[in-house]
Structure formats: structure tokens, C-alpha cells
Amino acid sequence: MHKLISIIFILLMTSCAVNRPQGSTEAEVLYKEAERLVKSERYIMALEKLNKIKSQYPYSYYATSAELMQADILYKQENYEEAAAAYLLFKDFHPKHPKMDYVTFKIAEAYYKQKPSTFDRDLTPAKQAIKYFNELRSLYPQSEYLKDAREKIDECYKMIKDKELYIANFYYKTKDWQSASFRYEQLLAQFNDDEVKRLASDRLVTIGLKGIRPDLCELVFKNYRYLYKDKDLSNLKKDVKKCLE
């Protein structure tokens, strides 16, 4: 029995040695081993290989690639908050890396994955996702990672808009005019949505005519008069119509 165990152990060791990937340097071999481990979802062992590259071969070409793969592993493990931080760190330290469009895309995706399912929660991740998807579109207009960026930006914007609109309407219904006017002005400034702009404008005029903020009527007339076609004026409430005429 003891001999059998020894033989099996020797065979296993021999097999491992034979199956090691080929490479011109030990750092390259370790990196290839990490790649193979990631493919088989053995992330902890892969991280050990990558840490070894970083600690023992910090000036190797593969040291930088190891940092990126570590961020990828965090993402694959669905540790999106840590993944975003790792990609951001990589971006700061290697701003001219040839895969920077991929890194920017993964930062945006990591934030996108953190956004809540409903708008009544903290939407900071959605705002960050918009920021980095827009950066991707602006700096890398030919990137292969732009495929779903527009849809995801629109989805995040809708959540933010719905939340801001909900809060503004809440203040309006509870007659907190100062807070309501502030929120409606924010909506006008942030969102290019005529339906929202019309509602916000109407509400601002109404608040202005109550004497709380007399300047609001002038604000709407000067900046958002275009929202009201002449033929639509007859359908407006008297106070709004009076302000726009």
C-alpha cells in the first residue's frame, strides 16, 4: 500500500511538471499557469501565481499583465466594488496601457453591476457607470466594447431621472416650495427630456406665481419657452399660460 501511494505521488508530480506551460522566463510560465487556472475557475490558485509574479519579478513584462488579471479575477468573482477599485488603480498607474479601452469598459461595467434594482436606493454606482461609459465613448469611439454602452447609459439616466422627479414631486405635493423649485431646476439642467422639462417648467411657474420665487416665471420664459408651441398654450393652466404669453 505504501509503495502504491508513493507511485501515485510520483506520477502526479511528474504530470504537473510535464504539463507546465512553456515560456522564455519563469514570469511568463507563471502567467500562463494563472491563465489556465482562471479558465478552470480556480481563482485562488491563479491569484497565488500572479502575486508571485508581482513579488519576485516586479520588472517583468508580465507584472503589469498580472495586475490586470487580478482585477479581472475580482470581477469574475462578482466582487464588483473591489474590481472597480482594482481597475481604477491600474488605470492610474498605467494610463498608456494598450488595453485602456478595455480597462475603462470594465470600470464602467463594475459600477453598472453595483447599481440597485430600484431608484429609491443610493444611485452613486449608476452615476459612476455613466461617467466611465461616456469616457469610453469619448476617448475610444472605435472600441469593440461600446456595443451596449448607450443602452446602459440610458438605463442609468432613467433611474436617476425617476428618483429626482419623485423627490421633486414629493416636495411639491407637501408644499415645500423652496426644495421643490431647487429640484425642478436640477431636472431642467440635467435631463434632455421634453416631457420632464414641461412638467418641471409648469411647476416652477406655479411656484413662482405664488410669490415664493418670482424669478422662476422669467427663468422659464427665457430658457424653456421653446417647449410650448403656440397651439399648445390654450391647453395650459391659466397661470402658466399667462407667464408664457
Keywords summarizing the entry:
245 residues, mainly alpha, 12 helices
Major sheet summary line: none
- What sequence of helices (H) and strands (E) makes up the elements? HHHHHHHHHHHH
Give the termini separation: 100 Å
Principal-axes shape call: elongated
Counting DSSP E segments of at least 2 residues, the number of strands comes to 0
Give the helix/strand class: mainly alpha
- Helix content percent band: over 70%
The average pLDDT score comes to 88
Strand % is: under 5%
Unreliable stretches covering 5 or more consecutive residues: 7-18
Put simply, the count of helices is: 12
State Rg. Answer: 28 Å
Question: Can you give a write-up of this model?
Answer:
It is a single chain. The protein is an all-alpha fold and 245 residues long. The protein is 73% helix and 0% strand. Helix 2 packs parallel to helix 4. The longest helix is centred in the middle third of the chain and has 25 residues. It starts with a helix and ends with a helix.
Topology:
Elements: H1 2-19, H2 26-39, H3 43-56, H4 61-76, H5 80-93, H6 100-114, H7 124-139, H8 149-173, H9 177-190, H10 194-209, H11 215-224, H12 238-244
Helix pairs in contact: 2-3, 2-4, 3-4, 4-5, 5-6, 6-7, 7-8, 8-9, 9-10, 10-11
